[in-house]
Structures are given as C-alpha cells and as structure tokens.
Amino acid sequence: MTRPVDLTAAAARFTERRLRVRPVDQSWQERAWQFYDQVPEVRFAAQWVANAMSGARLFAGRRADDGTIEEAPDGHRTTELVTGIAGGPEGQAQLLGDFGPHLVVAGEGWIVIRPTITQQQVSSEEWRVLSVAEVTQQGGKLIAEIDGEPVIIPAHDLDQPTDPAAPVAIRVWEPHPRRHLEADSPVRSSLGLLEELQLLNAAVAAIARSRLTGRGVLLVPKGARFPTTPGQDAAEDDLLEVFMQVAETAYREPESAAATVPIILEVPAEVISEMKLLTFESDFDDLAIRLREEAIRRFATGLEVPAEVLLGMGDVNHWGQWALQAEAIRLGIEPRLATVAHALTTQWLRPLLEDEGVEDSGQWLVWYDTAPLRVRQNRSQTALEVYDRGAISAEALRRETGFDDADAPTSPPAREARPAPSPLPVDETSAPPDTLPASAALPDALLAAADGLIWAALNSAGEKLRRTPACPRSERARAKEITPAALHTILPVDRDQVEQWRLLDGAWARVPEVAARYGLDPDCLAVTLDSYCRELIAAGVEHRYDQTSGVLRAPCVMEAA
Predict the structure, then answer these.
(1) In three state form, how does the secondary structure of 353-414 look?
(2) Structure letter (DSSP) for residue 170
C-alpha cells in the first residue's frame, strides 16, 4: 500500500462549460521554450525529468479507509483500463516521458486521446502529449495539431455519456499559486536569470573570438622594418584597414596565424625605447566566466531537485549519490507523476467508470510506482571488500558484480595469501581486532546468545527503517513482505544514517545480562556487536550465524572467554 502525496496538480477536460474564462497568461511560455532550445542547462534539466518519469509504472489503485492506496487486483475493470493506457507499458513510458519537458519548461501540456474506428467500433486509441502551441481553441472546439494535421476535438457535454469514438483533450498543468488557471514551472521563475545567462554566454564567446583580447598589439621602434605585402610601396599603411583585415581573418579562421600572432605596429622611436606588447585584457573577462557559473548554479537551485543533478556529482561518493537521487525522485519526479496521475484519474478513468455504472468509481484512481527508479547503487566494490573479509560467499559476490553461477571457476581459485582479516565489515579508520587462534573456540551457548542479540538488533533496525526516507511510501507495502532483519539488504543506508535514524537505539538492553552470564565485559561486548551491526547495515549484507564467531574476535571478548 502507498499513501498519496498532497496534490497541487490541476487538470481539465475540454467541455462546453470549461475553459470559457478570461484567457490566462501564456506569453512567457514561448520565451521558456526558446531557452529550452538555446540554453543546454534548461534542456538537460527537462530531459532528466523526462527520462526519470519514463521509468515509473502506472497502476490502478483504490483508496483505502486509512488513506493508503492499494493496487487493484488482476482482472478488475480498472486494472484493464489503466493497463491499456497508451497501449501498454512501453506507451506509458513514452507518455510519462513526454510530459517531463512540458512540466519543467511551460508548466502544462495536453493529453489527446484519439480513438481508431474500425468497422464502426473502437479498435485502438492513440495517446499523444501536445504542447500549448499545438492546441488552440476556436469557438466551441479545440484544434489539435498532430503530425502536422489538424484534429478537431468537440466539446464534451457533462450531461451526456462519453462518446467512445470522439477524441478527448485533457489540459494538465501545475497551477500558479497566484492564479490557479495559470501554469507555473521552474523555468518561469528563472526567465530573467536565463536572459542574464545568455548575455554572459555571449560575453564569453566574444572574449574567445576577440582578436585584440587574444593577442594584443606589438609596438616596434620606427627604425625597424614594418611588414609589407608583395608589391606594396613605401607609403604609410592604413592602420584601421590592417586591424580589420586581421580581425576578419582571425574570426573566419580561428586556427590561422592572424588569431595567434600579435598585430605589429610601427611607432616613432622616441615614443618607445624598445619593443612592447600591449594587451587589451579586462577584469570583466574572468568576471564574466564566474558570473556565468553563478547563474548556472542559481538556475540549478530553482529546479525543485538537488542542484547536484545539474551541476554534477563528481565529489559525491556512491552512497551520497543515491541519497541525492532519492531526494530528486521525491521532490522533482513524484509530484509531476502525481500531476499526470491526477489528470488521468479525474478526467479519464472516473468518467469512464461512471458511464459504466461502477458504484465506487470515486475510490478508484490512476497511481504511479517509482520503485523501478529506486534501484540500489552498484554494490560491486562493496561486495569485493566484504568478500575479502569473508562476510559473503562467492555466489553473493558473483550476483553483486553481475555474474552468475555459470561463470564460477571449475576449480577453487588460488587466493593471495594475506594477513587474516576480520570476516565482517569494519570501520577502516579503527584498528582491526586480533586474529582468533585456530585452536581457540567459543562456547556454543555464547555464540547462540550473540547471534540472538544481533538478529534482535537487526530486526528492530528493520522495523524502524520502514519509517525512514530510505523506504518511500510507494515501497512500504513491498517492504512489509521482507523480514525486518534483512530489510537493510534491500534499502540502502549510509553509515551516518544508522545514527541519524537511531536504528540501533535500545538494541543492546540485554547485553549486560548476557555478558555477566559468560563473564564478559558488557561494554566491550556491546561495542563489538554494535560496530558489527552498523557496518553490516551500511554494507547491505545479511547476517549469518557462521559469522558470529568472527564478530566475537575482539581482544576484550577473547581474553574474558
């Protein structure tokens, strides 16, 4: 089950009673689309949202009494309708992806559903996402431009059943808080900033192309020979003409000598005593580049997703990248998916259910699942490190690195001899525990007690993990089907988040009792078990009983044992 987010979306089907109001302001949208064509940062942001939205899954759901949304069972009429949207999963991915640029740039778009009639029956439907420039209102009809051809969409009468053969047009938009009918988008609030960015781009381009800024002017004494062209007499050269010729050559041919060699100019000897190079560099040259970077950063902060999505994540580790991407999905993708789902629910699904006489039509809706977007980051490196420490099997290593059992060696591979490491994930900043001698053995009862404490701690951590941002509401139903003690192997958790979310708080309440039973230092045992569980959660590795003896190899435990 998932709980729906608060909707601020708006949708309206073209009817005889709607869209007959004072025209909304759409003049800014043309400028916004121009920036999409001219500014690569705008296009990148729009396409990033589009690609992410296309990875979500649409499904039919029902609102439960507690407000959560349960997926409709197979064979239900709503499941059949939603499954058929845009012809199936591939068409739905295209439909959702097409909405990305429209919602980021213009803040609105149109869904046009055009039935295909074969032998006086609807054989299929064509779903299109159109921009506001492709849909115009003329009298009581809409004219949609599809593949260069006008398609007339008649107004729907709310008092009459839906005509299955008539095209349907649904306006979908993010409402502006000042006026609900107007669309809003991140680009709208950045129009002035993007104009500034274009000016700075032009300034940087001018600097790069400037002949004077690039190489300057070289002054030589009059006694030196001034360069002349073949057939040129001793008459004085036209200085401006020389400048223009060199500048034009440098502009047309950036790799020519005119673009790299200074302009040589003869002046009276008494003016200068030696050759000098004059440059025309300006402090604004470096300032323009810095201002452009600042403008890009400001634009990135207004995109409703983490700025690192646009600026890059080169300095962020893979766990940090996962957290940023999860935040981007929550803030930038799910609200837009909810906008489209709300439109399909209120303007398409429920009218169809009402026409078919479904009594509880108001409880069914089109909803989305972002679980396909929340793929855990590549754990290959972590798997290699944990495998070297003996905490996972060779089968698990092959699985995490993309191989299967068919790739297993026919004979055990020779492994490089190395000092016996700890068989569990440990903090590399701390000193590793002493190695347990082969002859040493721990009481089976102590191992069983420690194993029980570990499982209880991981189980408690898993229960808490379900209520953290690591487990979005869209995945909580699936998370309930997983044993809490193993939930950290599915949901990624950074080492710092174990403390931030207090996953292990209260987990070691029985450690003093167990320690006293076996004559162990309770503080040492608690620290040992706590460190192991923290690293196990952060590494996404499941605990096994055969790892327990390695957990208890800390010197303070072994000395007491």
Answers:
(1) HHHCCCCCHHHEEEEEECHHHCCCCCCHHHHHHHHHCCCCCHHHHHHHCCCCHHHCCCCCCC
(2) E
Phi and psi torsions of 207, nearest 5°? -65, -45
Question: C-alpha angle 440/444/446, rounded to 5°?
Answer: 90
Given the structure tokens 């929550």, which residue do they identify?
Answer: 330
Residue 130 DSSP SS3: strand
pLDDT digits (tens, 9 = 90+) for 2-37: 444 444 445 565 554 444 445 677 889 999 999 999
Give the residue carrying structure tokens 């990875």: 55
Residue 121 backbone dihedrals phi, psi, to 5 degrees: -135, 150
DSSP string, 283-305: HHHHHHHHHHHHHHHHHHHTSSS
Q: H helices within 162-238, ranges in order?
A: 186-189, 191-209, 211-215
Q: How far is the C-alpha of 481 from the C-alpha of 328, rounded, in Å?
A: 26
- Give the whole-angstrom CA distance, residue 178 versus residue 160: 34
- Amino acid identity of 450? A
Compute the distance between CA of residue 310 and CA of residue 289 in angstroms, rounded to an integer. Answer: 18
SS3 143: strand
User: In terms of Cα–Cα distance, which of 299, 329, 328, 341 is closest to 8?
Assistant: 341
Alpha carbon 142 to chain centroid, angstroms: 35
C-alpha span between 228 and 97 (Å, rounded) = 63
For residue range 544-558, list pLDDT tens digits in order: 888 888 888 766 666
Q: How many C-beta neighbours within 10 Å does residue 309 have?
A: 20
DSSP β-ladder status, 217-221 and 276-278:
antiparallel
User: What DSSP state is assigned to residue 55?
Assistant: T
What are 144's strand-pairing partners?
Answer: 135, 151
Q: In whole angstroms, what is the distance from residue 461 CA to residue 454 CA?
A: 10
Q: Kindly state the helix (H) or strand (E) to which residue 121 belongs, with its residue range.
A: strand 121-130
C-alpha radius of gyration, the chain, whole number: 34
How far from each other are the two terminal CA atoms of the chain, in whole angstroms?
A: 48
| Least trusted range by pLDDT, from 375-379, 463-467, 489-493 | 375-379
For 411, residues 6+ apart whose C-beta sits below 8 A from its C-beta are none
Whether residue 130 contacts residue 146, with contact meaning beta carbons closer than 8 Å, is answered with yes
pLDDT at residue number 223: 53
* 38: helix, strand or coil: helix
Cα within 13 Å of Cα(100), Cβ side: 26
Residue 26 in tokens = 């759409």
Residue with tokens 């295209």: 94
Q: In DSSP terms, which residues pair with 130 in a beta bridge?
A: 110
b/e map 77-95, b = 16+ CB within 10 Å = ebbebbbebbeeeeebbeb
Q: Are 367 and 61 in contact (CB under 8 A)?
A: yes
pLDDT confidence of 175, banded at 50, 70, 90? very high
